[in-house]
Amino acid sequence: MKIRWFTISMTIVLALTLGLVILRHEPATAVATDFPLGGTDQKNDKIVFFDPNATDWNAASSIVWQWTPTAANGFSGLTGAFGDPSDVRLRDNCVYGGQWLVVADSKGLAAVVPYPAGNSRKWGLNVGGNPHAAELLPNGNVAVAASHGHWVRIYTASQGPDSAVYAQYDLTGAHGVVWDPQRSLLWALGDYHLVALSVNGTDAAPTIREVLKVDLPQQYRGNGDPLENPGGHELQPVYGDSDRLWITTAKHVYQYVKSTNTFDSSYPGSAGADREATKSVSNQLSGQIVSTQPDYAKTPVGACVFNGWCMDSTDFFNPAYTRTRTDAAFYKVRVMNPAYQ
Questions:
Q1: How many domains is the chain built from?
Q2: Which residues face 316 on adjacent strands?
Q3: CATH of the domain at 206
Q4: Most CB atoms within 10 A, among 135, 140, 160, 322?
Q5: Burial of 138 (0-12, 13-18, 19+ CB in 10 A)
Q6: CA quadruple 14, 110, 206, 182: dihedral positive or negative?
Q7: Average pLDDT rounded to a whole number, residues 309-324
């Protein structure tokens, strides 16, 4: 099932006690295949969805959905594990039915929440280890990558909202996880390697087996000296081409080609999108690329100083433009396509 962006009359629904704000509005010329853009705002401690057609992200009408965990929406005892959101994605799921928000937070939270209701906790734990990515698997379990824990885990979320059983695969600097339905594999990205993992066992007792381990490309400083750590960071599907994955490293943004086991740096839009320190990258089905780069790495340097890796703007390529949300401190802003690929 794919979201379609329809023009609807002005309606504002506020559910502040649930930590949820839904703003429906009439966008400018909507493109049927463009999905909302989901951002992790670490300064304001929330997940924010923007209208893909909004030109002014400071306008209230640009925000179409917001969420933060509260006791009222099922996160009693877990609110302290949220405050530095590091990952957000939407997923269709046949086991649970409908669409689900999947969230990871550097303070420890990994969670699954119904979308757009946002009013309950399907599953959620403080998993520790600085979670940087979380993926909802087709069977309802959840894969989590933790950069300080140096692991990828499969949590048995299908067994209940507090289920803490997991299988673990050790991966130095684990930063990304993406499910591949065509190959029935979990791709994971760490500091040095991209790996493909086979998830076996049962829903209640999963197991993990490494199928493929690929060295990331060598990275170089501006003076030509090699970096010791390639710095694998972002991992996402290339929508429209199931043979490709987005991969970011310390210095570059690549598309990994599964069938040839190669890293492509000459994809459409690479002239703008291939840049250092990229925290997130994704694409609309139209081919437009959505990317975030910390303000410290930009020329000239950007305005966000909330922490050492934030940005208040999101960059687009094919076509190229920038959208800025004043007073935000984003980490990732992604296309909220609920399909795996």
A1: 1
A2: 290, 321
A3: 2.120.10.30
A4: 135
A5: middle
A6: positive
A7: 97
Return the H-helix or E-strand segment holding 272: helix 270-273
Q: Residue 2 falls within a domain, yes or no?
A: no
- The number of helix segments (H) and strand segments (E) in the chain equals 1, 26
Tokens matching residue 105: 């937070």
Backbone angles phi, psi at 79, to 5 degrees: -65, -30
Domain contains 21: yes
Measured between alpha carbons, how far is residue 193 from residues 100, 130, 214 in Å?
29, 18, 5
Sheet holding 11-15, edge to edge: 11-15, 20-24, 63-67, 46-50, 37-41, 330-335
Contacts of 44 (CB under 8 A, 6+ apart): 327, 328, 329
Distance CA 117, CA 315 (A): 29
Residue 16, in any domain of the structure: yes
Q: What pTM does this model have?
A: 0.90
Using CA atoms of 335, 15, 67, 291 in order, give the dihedral in degrees to the nearest 10: 30
Cα dihedral across residues 267, 273, 277, 281: positive or negative: negative
**pLDDT of 4-44, one tens digit each?**
333 333 333 334 334 444 433 333 333 557 999 999 999 99
Which residues in 147-181 are b (16+ Cβ under 10 Å) and which e? bebbbbbbbbbbbeeebeebbebebebbbbbbbbe
> For residue 1, is it within any domain?
no
Q: Is the pLDDT of residue 172 over 60?
A: yes
At 7 the pLDDT is 32
Residue 185 burial (CB count, 10 A): 18
- What are 248-298's pLDDT values in tens digits? 999 999 999 999 999 999 999 999 999 999 999 999 999 999 999 999 999
User: 80 in the Ramachandran plot: left (φ > 0), alpha (ψ -120 to 50) or beta?
Assistant: alpha
At position 265, the amino acid (one-letter code) is S
Measuring CA to CA, how many Å separate 32 from each of 28, 215, 334?
A: 12, 38, 17
